[in-house]
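HD-GYP domain-containing protein structure dump, as promised
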Amino acid sequence: MRRVQIRLVKAGDRLAKPVLRENGHVLLGLGVELNDRFIERLRDLGVDSVYIEEKNTEDIIPEEVIREETRKQAVDSVYKAMNSIIENPATKGRAVAPELGRTFRHVFGQILQDLMGRQEILVNLESIHTSDAYLFQHSVNVAVLAGIIGLAKGYNRNQLEDLGIGALLFDVGMTQVPQELLKKKTALSKEEMKFVQKHTVEGFNLLRHQYDLSLLSAHCALQHHERYDGTGYPRGLKKDEIHEYAQIVAIADVYDALTSPRPHRPRYTPSEAIEYLFAAGNSYFDVDLIRLFCKHISIYPVATTVQLNSGQIGVVVSNNSLAVHRPTVRIITEADGTSVKEPYEIDLKDSLHLMIAKVL
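structure tokens r here:
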């Protein structure tokens, strides 16, 4: 399979991965043949790329960092929790839902089990979902990324649970923000921005009243927009005044937000997002946490379509953890635009005259 931008998808192409709804359930399933109506509908729903089946790349299968069933259950739990708050505003100021902590301990426990079952983690979070699913998929992605950092730091089980539950629910305050602001395609006014920024305090207040949730988990909601240099909100905390869990969630939040398509901008590539994070080292984020985080990110995920500086077009086959910016690429189109009869692979770590010029 290979990942293709929606503008390059043609009628007759078949999906190699499903497209997901906001609750994690399938909108269009594996093997569905796309037609012009489906393609246009996906565009309308904010889907900017899909995985398609292709003879030359049929053996290229990206390994997800967590199992599909784990992701589905996690997204469904976040979806139900957040919609329960939206539908029952009276819950504000008291417990959000009975046994919320137990539910999310189980959910994050499954995520943690998947993460710990991998020998080496280079993260690929390239699930395909509609724009309405962003809040729920984003929460799960942030929890996965936070869990990876927590494991790398050697956190014990209780620490991992507090961090992971906080990461799953860090954006719960967004349920108090009107949908028209979340979906706005132009820049927010100062008044609108101030309103949106209240979601940190709103989320903290929703979670701190939950009897079976750690207050440290609630602080992930409160502090995830604080910045290392004190320029964040809501309290302008700096450096070690910000709890480390919240610092980890903040890095994961920004990375996943940048690499997801949003109504007001296209997605960043993973390499562009990593450049942004390093540029923000010791200003927005602790640079040591950024270094740790970036050790586990796949800059060019398997099945990504890329163009080399030679003009050749290929698909990423595998990554090398010691040279993440120089993966092995299977060439499918030569520099003159002709399709190759027999695809061949180039290991970029051994072909130093070649480099990836752009992601297609």
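The chain is about 40% helix and 10% strand.
lmk if u need the other ones
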